[in-house]
Amino acid sequence: MRLDKFLSETGTATRSESKKAARSGGVTLNGIAVRDLSVHMDPQTDRVTYMGSPVIYQKNIYIMMNKPDGVISATDDGNETTVLDLLPEKYKKMEIFPCGRLDKNTLGLLILTNNGALAHRLLSPKCHVEKTYRFECERPLTEADVELLCKGVDIGEKSSTQPAKVLLTSSRSGEISVTEGKFHQIKRMFQAVCNKITYLERIRFADIPLDTALARGEWRELTEEEREILEKH
Ligand code: URA
């Protein structure tokens, strides 16, 4: 495996970050500083350090799940069914966890992984990862409501929500894309325009669309192309 791929797959750094680190001698392979990260290495036997810390190779797993209603986005819960309960036991041993949360009654695309560093980056407000939701709401949305949702609304946080995109399919349904992931974000945005979400389904996360072949509750591992999209962040 190429050294730059190893660094991105282990969630250590993006390709551009590792290139910069390598230029300053911050990447070593078996004790020798490496400046050209296209060099091939063996993840099982070679020793790599990044900015002075050893990089441990652990196979990263990425799963796409079509989350059903009534299941919580947690790894463990005494009473409720969690998304982890829908996966085979082997994934629990690999310490998989949901990358962000969907509410108990929100459906659709949930990514699960054991790559903590990458999940942290994807969820960081600095990263601006776009998430798209299909919604239905109680009352018709006016043009002014849509304008407000797009510009940013007050949901009781320090600042208004970041700019969003709204595409209506009827006056009470459509798609909304946001780059933040605050608690109950979409529901609170609709409350801010005196409306109420009655249906919410995530259909896209970081340029990865929900696989429509997956029924609710079904899952599959990400394809190589999908993994690369995530690891670019
Ligand atoms: N916004 C919400 O209100 N709920 C979700 O589950 C996701 C986004």
Structure description:
This protein has 233 residues and is an alpha+beta fold. The protein has helices at residues 3-9, 15-23, 89-93, 116-123, 143-151, 185-192, 224-231; strands at 27-29, 32-33, 48-50, 53-54, 62-67, 97-98, 107-113, 131-137, 165-170, 173-178, 197-205, 208-209, 219-221. Strands 5, 6, 7, 8, 9, 10, 11, 12 and 13 form a 9-stranded mixed β-sheet that branches. The mean pLDDT is 94. The protein binds uracil (URA). Uracil is lined by residues 102-103, 106, 184-187, 200.
Comma- or semicolon-separated keywords:
globular; four-stranded antiparallel beta sheet; 25% strand; single chain; binds uracil; 7 helices; alpha+beta; nine-stranded mixed beta sheet; 233 residues
Helix and strand topology:
Elements: H1 3-9, H2 15-23, E1 27-29, E2 32-33, E3 48-50, E4 53-54, E5 62-67, H3 89-93, E6 97-98, E7 107-113, H4 116-123, E8 131-137, H5 143-151, E9 165-170, E10 173-178, H6 185-192, E11 197-205, E12 208-209, E13 219-221, H7 224-231
The protein binds uracil (URA).
The site of uracil (URA) has 8 residues, from α6.
